[in-house]
Amino acid sequence: MNKRDARRRVEETIANRESDLLELLEELVSAKSVTGREPRGQAVMLEAFDRLDLEVDTWEPSVERLSDHPGFFRTSSYDEHGYDGRENAVATIPGEGEGPTLALSGHIDVVPADPESAWESDPWALRRDGDELYGRGVSDMKGGLAAMVLAVETLADEGIELAGDLYLQSTIEEEAGGVGGVLSALERGYVPDAAIIPEPFGLPNVGIASAGVMFFDVTVPGKKAHAAWGHQGVSAFDKACRIRGALEELNEKRQDRIDFPPAYGADPSLEGHVTNINLGVVEGGDWPATVPAEVTMKGRVGWPPGETRGEVREAIEGVIAEAADDDEWLAANPPIVEWAGWNAAPHEVPRDAEIVEIVERNAESITGEEGSFVGGNAALDERFYQRYYDVPVVTAGPYGPNLHGVDEYTTVSSLLETAQTLAVSAIDYCGIAE
Ligand SMILES: [Zn+2]
């Protein structure tokens, strides 16, 4: 069989296998694998791999083995749940020739569905309404996992043997940083020549970049006093507001200065907001009638490719130090900045990488629409491949405008198009055995 016939056959077959796709997706959604509780979802994936008779490797990540890696940070999901029992799974479909190795990679964890009562139907039961599918994870990204399985199953059923190896992998804790997931798989030796991750960027758009993300705490000191003698105290809250003002000013300057068109390729409302500083938690004080002695603000900074983590840290620490210098109390009692939690660098894949061109071409021909290059505004698993292993990686997945939200949804048609794009791109990239 030549490549053209093979591609036509898998496209046709996948178009008729909606029920297989939905059956697996239904099981995956019901498995309720919120980050930290991946095993129930992973069990469904392992059964699917088993049905396909694939050789599978499973393992728990090890912090000791990962902690020296430049991409490592201790994730909140590790702190809360540890890694015991939280296995990753990689199935290898050996190639029958000398072609390059491709990984199809997806994460099995999902974010919580709270408040569940706000959903129109049970978030942990797949619901179909016409072409639309509802449920936690249908787009992010159990739909992508089901599409990956359907793609591989179809290649096997059509008797198409690839020339290069294919990794079919289901990993943990992407939503908490992916350190124990994709990074652990790469460190275990699953380093392909290229990778595709079907996160819901909405075909025919293809993702080639992701933002860097870091979390930080700013602890601002004050001086405790009874409210009646408030003039003798120093409100940490008032001082924190000065720091907040300085960060807000920095945020505006950065948003004026920093541009990155792929970040708003699929969502024009993001133009002018490709970098952002958010203060998401403020804690402080202990009594309404007491001047607060300490306030901690917990923030997140996100930024597109183009800056290093060091430069971003310096910018934030710099404006905080400057604001403190302008204030008599803070100059003598400087705020403390700590960087803890999320610590992910941005990534960007060259547009002329072979896998990018292949996936872009196939996504456009399968959907019949013109796509654009897009970038993720949050850190993605993709960064590990590109930044630390120089493996070009492209994001290509279903429609999913409402991911992480209430009534998360996608469409049957975009999931089938995803499976088609994955299967024909594997044929194009890995080649077909003689
Ligand atoms: Zn995702």
Automatic annotation (TrEMBL):
Signal peptide range: none
Family classification: Belongs to the peptidase M20A family.
This protein's name: Probable succinyl-diaminopimelate desuccinylase
Domain Peptidase M20 dimerisation residues, every copy: 209-327
GO MF: metal ion binding; succinyl-diaminopimelate desuccinylase activity
Record GO biological process: lysine biosynthetic process via diaminopimelate
Organism of origin: Natronococcus pandeyae
InterPro entries to which the protein is assigned, alphabetical: ArgE/DapE, ArgE/DapE_CS, Bact_exopeptidase_dim_dom, Peptidase_M20, Peptidase_M20_dimer, Peptidase_M20A
Keyword Hydrolase assigned: yes
EC numbers on record: 3.5.1.18
